[in-house]
Amino acid sequence: MQTEAYVLTAKDAPFSLQTVELLEPEANEVLIEVVACGICHTDLAIQSGAFPSPFPNVTGHETSGIVVKVGSGVKNKDLKAGDRVLCSFNYCSACKPCKTGHPAACEGFAAINFGRQRSVAVGNKAGIRGPNGEEVYGAFFGQSGFAKHAVVVENSVVKVPNDAAELKTLAPIGCGFQTGAGAILRRLKPAKSSSVAISGLGAVGAGALFAAKYLGIETIILLDVVPGKLDMAKEFGATHTFNARDADVVEQVRKATDGGVDYFVECSGNVRALEAGWAMTANLGTLLSCGTPGPGVNPPFGIFENLVACKTYIGLCEGDSNPPEFVPFLAKLYAEGHFPVDRVSKTYSYKDLDKALHDMHSGEVIKPIIVFKED
Ligand SMILES: [Zn+2]
Ligand SMILES: [Zn+2]
């Protein structure tokens, strides 16, 4: 079928809205009409070439939509046309992490999601044809949602009960927000009496902050370099905020927490923030990275120094989310008022992508959401 999609024709090229041909869904794929798609820094990392992915391609991996057609081999027999879905990452289903309920730790994660693997051996690996018949790669995180329609790999589709208006707000839950929330709720599971510091109030940091507040953690510290975000963090439940640019920020945090925090959750991907975070983490404490500067960068602390301080360093992808369980759980927390993603998001018509990108870069909005289907 024909649809409109934002195509990246080459590294550093702008997102260009093109009429493309979307090939029929294969047996284990689902055709959806896209309602909305959040913009994530990972999309921009594909555009800049920081994360390798083949061109030309369609990005977008925080998609919500309505099912149009279900492939004949889709295992979830409950799924039918008209169902509302939120999308998340794709995974192989066959490796040990996948088989034990940890698909975010899938051995094939990078190859499948950035390499745009569809789960079946199909003739056209790309899935989309451009205006001149050229192959355009879809299946980014199993979805490629910067489009009016998308063929989504079944692993990436999560059926939810939410109404059409909520589908716009909740579109980004399956990536940035679940990454931060999962760090707290699925991996660290801190005791109420502990101290948690969160570095960077983007979507990932907001997810971590909402989750820490939901658990009733006594000391929740938020670090950012934008004063307005520090004010916002207080509204969302941070008990202390610090400007990460302050020359003595490490001493300030250590003083406020009697020698350092129990858990430091680094969400910005900034290596200097991670280095400061390591110094702010108490001995016996845990430092977790759920933001990344991209492949090939080493942690900025010494093995000896870490050993004698008995600190734990954790790398965590997508918050260790198991999307079929965790995405509906977060949608439920939203409905209950515990996960107010709407307060850090803003919706834009799909024709205003440039404005959305501008507002994201300027820091005016934490999570821009592109709406492809108006009511
Ligand atoms: Zn993302
Ligand atoms: Zn796997």
From TrEMBL:
UniProt cross-references to InterPro entries, sorted A to Z: ADH-like_C, ADH-like_N, ADH_Zn_CS, ER, GroES-like_sf, NAD(P)-bd_dom_sf
SMART domains in the record: PKS_ER
Cofactors: Zn(2+)
Keywords of this entry: Metal-binding, Oxidoreductase, Zinc
One Gene Ontology molecular-function label: oxidoreductase activity
Span of domain Enoyl reductase (ER): 15-371
CDD domains membership: benzyl_alcohol_DH
Family from the record: Belongs to the zinc-containing alcohol dehydrogenase family.
PANTHER family to which the protein is assigned, alphabetical: GROES-LIKE ZINC-BINDING ALCOHOL DEHYDROGENASE FAMILY PROTEIN (PTHR43350:SF2), NAD-DEPENDENT ALCOHOL DEHYDROGENASE (PTHR43350)
Protein name: Aryl-alcohol dehydrogenase
